[in-house]
Amino acid sequence: MNKFLYILITFFVLSSCSEYQKVLKSTDIGAKFKAGEALYNDGKYAKANKLFAQIVPNYRGKPQAEKLMYLYSSSFYKMKDYYVAGYQFERFASSYPKSEKLEEASFYAVKSYFMLSPRYSKDQKETKEAVEKLQEFINLFPDSEYVPEANQMVKELVFKLEKKAFEIAKQYNTISDYQASIRSFDNFIFEFPGSKLKEEALFYRLDSAYKLAVNSVERKRQDRLETAKDYSKAFKKLFASSKYIEDVDDMANIIEKELKNYSSKS
């Protein structure tokens, strides 16, 4: 970069900063609104947000308030401050139910909740809340152009809940708490019958039931073997070509052999 161009850019940056500070300290709310909107349109959301925050109380009840509140809410979203964005967009939707921006604001409110959902290994309170909010949006605006995206977000969030439940159940299997593992996988299968993790869930449920049975005291052994046998049948009925089928067959054969011992005793 040549020296003249560098000086020119520096001049404009300093000039721009100086103008912004001047407006920021000004008492002219109209100038703040105009400057804030210009900064927003220029992608300078943090600066715009500061100006909007200063004048929100002054415009309350005025015709320009609707536009201001939308830009103010949107600036939080653009800044990735999703907690505040969700709150402000919901507040906008509640304050301006007849606004032409109602649908858009409602969508970005629920998308903010989606963005707050943590990875599956964390507590999923925000994920569950986001699913509820998205379903409410879909029900309220069934013909919205945003519905396909909202549906996709619901799918992603539900899978996160599935993954959380699955990993908890699998962890019980890993630490040899087989009864807790079976209960957890039963709950998983009941809550998420169409899950893409169902094959693995059924396998690890069988694995837990098998290990629980073969390591049981004599008085509980036969009943638990019968339960494991039922689980092996359920797995093979649904996933006959599974990558786990050899392991399932091995367990089923041992279970059958063990149960024959009880038949021969009776």
From TrEMBL:
InterPro entries: BamD, BamD-like, TPR-like_helical_dom_sf. SUPFAM superfamilies: TPR-like (SSF48452). Residues 33-221 form the Outer membrane lipoprotein BamD-like domain. Keywords: Cell outer membrane, Membrane, Signal. Gene3D superfamilies: Tetratricopeptide repeat domain. Pfam families: YfiO. This is Outer membrane protein assembly factor BamD. It comes from Allotamlana fucoidanivorans.
